[in-house]
Amino acid sequence: MIPEAALASFIATLFSMMNPIGNVGVFASLTANQSDDQARRTAWTCALSVTITLFIVAWSGSIILELFGITVDSLRAAGGLIIVLIGLNMLFNKSGHNQSPAELEDAKSSASIAVVPLTIPLVAGPGTIATVLIAAQQNSSVLSKVEISLVIPGFAALTGLLFTFATPISKRIGVSGMGAATRVMGMILTAIAMGMLADGLKVLLPGLAG
Questions:
Q1: Residues 164-198: pLDDT tens digits?
Q2: How many CB atoms neighbour CB 81 within 10 A?
Q3: To the nearest whole percent, how much of the chain has pLDDT over 70?
Q4: SS3 annotation, 80-99
Q5: pTM for this structure?
Q6: Staple partner for 156: which of 47, 56, 65, 66, CB 3.0–4.6 Å?
Q7: CA nearest 183: which of 111, 118, 90?
Q8: What is the model's pLDDT at position 111?
Q9: Using an 8 Å Cβ cutoff, are 131 and 13 in contact?
């Protein structure tokens, strides 16, 4: 089983990385031309896609790491660095870590946006994938992966629920409210990611620990 402190850290990091509250406005913008039924289907298709994507990462990520010869500590350091950069972007409320303005504009005209860009890279982006992959590698027992797999659909369902009511939520919270939520999550992410980066570097560069 995953230690309580590690599980709590994983839950906090995953929630901040997925950022369902901050992404409500993006979802509302991308689905502005859809009917209520279409937007609802898009929201829950996205939630299902997020679940499947992160399940694959949690249960098959080790095969990918072995294929490329990547160690847990190098992954922890690299993942920490990626999440630090994403956290800083969120702290300053910049959306470039999710998609460029050109990609966002192109997505509005796409027939199906539930998988791209909503699932990848918006909700299950590089930072989210790195978070799940690192947790699965650090806690590689079957029971630990089951615990991780129970957290994933919970947050995916929350994301689907918030996206379902994206329009009224975005109107009620407003741009400033969603921006504040994103900044808070960015600060939490940066703090957690610095610890991940430091732990990885201590093993890769033992001189830093001495």
A1: 999 999 888 888 888 888 888 888 888 888 988 89
A2: 17
A3: 90
A4: HHHHHHHHHHHHCCCCCCCC
A5: 0.81
A6: 47
A7: 90
A8: 54
A9: yes
90 Cβ contact list (under 8 Å, min separation 6): 16, 19, 22, 97, 182, 183, 185, 186, 189
* CB-based contact 110:33 (threshold 8 Å): no
Stated as kind and residue range, the H or E segment containing 54 is helix 36-68
CA distance 80 to 83: 5
Token readout for 30 is: 């991308």
CA–CA distance, 85 with 190 (Å, rounded to integer): 8
How many Cβ atoms sit within 10 Å of the Cβ of residue 123? 28
Query: Side-chain half-sphere of 60: how many Cα atoms within 13 Å?
Result: 6
Cβ pair 48, 169 in contact under 8 A? no
Per residue in 111-120, pLDDT (tens digit) is: 579 998 899 9
Residue appearing with tokens 């289907």: 41
Q: What is the DSSP string of 128-172?
A: HHHHHHHHHHHS-SHHHHHHHHHHHHHHHHHHHHHHHTHHHHHHH
Do the beta carbons of residue 201 and residue 208 sit within 8 Å?
A: yes
State whether the Cα torsion 199-136-125-87 is positive or negative: negative
Contact 187, 92 (CB under 8 A): no
Buried b (16+ CB within 10 A) or exposed e, 178-199: beebbeebbebbbebbeebbeb
Left, alpha or beta for 55 (phi > 0: left; psi -120 to 50: alpha)? alpha
Q: Which two tokens stand for residue 133?
A: 């992959």
